[in-house]
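Lab notebook, bench 4. Still working through the backlog of constructs that have no structural model yet. Next entry is a single chain of 290 residues. Request: give me the structure tokens for it.
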Amino acid sequence: MPMLLIKGSYHLINSRADGDTIPFKPDKKEEWDLVPGPHKVEHNMSGKAKLRLEAIDTLETHYARNGNPEVHQPWLHGRAARDELTKWLGFTSVDRLPDETVTAATPTTCPGWILTRSAGRDKRCIALAGKGTPPGTSGTFINVDEALLRTTFNHHILKEGLAYPTYYTSLFPDLREELTAAVRQAKAAGKGLWKDDDTLGGASVTGIDSLQDDAVILPKLFRRLVDYLYLGDPTTADLTGFPAFLDQAADEFWIISAGHSTTGLDAIVEVTGSKVRMTHPAEDLVFVEN
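Model written out:
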């Protein structure tokens, strides 16, 4: 799979970096202009931009939409993923405010490189994150195979069981299958969040507090539940309208095991009273970019 290689450095201070989002500054900021796709990477004057790490979704440490209060998923695994990212990149200490804003880091930056094919609608660069010697010349497209993928943080965090796989159609099947193999190994070993995962077994949703304190579920499902609850009284949960809400959201995705596409997460989400569960694991889904 051809991807653009960009050499640069990772930055934490004044950010709210979590397990799948971190600022990155290329050595040559003009290399952002080489990122293909309909969306440009948004960056400041120095070139610093936000990365959204490809194919992974870690538990939310801060989520808000439409002016609603900020919420989070259970802290344990979200903060573990956050800390694993900073440690893996080479940061030895990080100081944060209660709202997760980084005030100090040692070292202040860490060198590294990314592999990318696009930016999202939110103008964050979607990337594989690497460290050490770059696997090619910065500013050029190189072939990313399974061996190179295994050197990235994206593969590492799935292998450690601290992220859910979240695939999009832009990721080639051979790389997706390599990541899925790492996910299945972590699941089998009960590593990280998998020992507490409620996505398939069902999470009891009685209000916003249950989502923040108890339910370990796919972050995409968490975000949809939060948005739905804030349409009414978030301290309680009448989930009878949730399937219709998912239908209206109209997420487009493929179900790999079924071999067909569908629209609306209501096709794979069951609601029984206060219990919400998905009928397919995250690694069986491939979402369509839009």
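Notes after review: The chain has seven helices and 17 strands. The CA atoms of residues 240 and 271 lie 8 Å apart. Flag for follow-up if needed.
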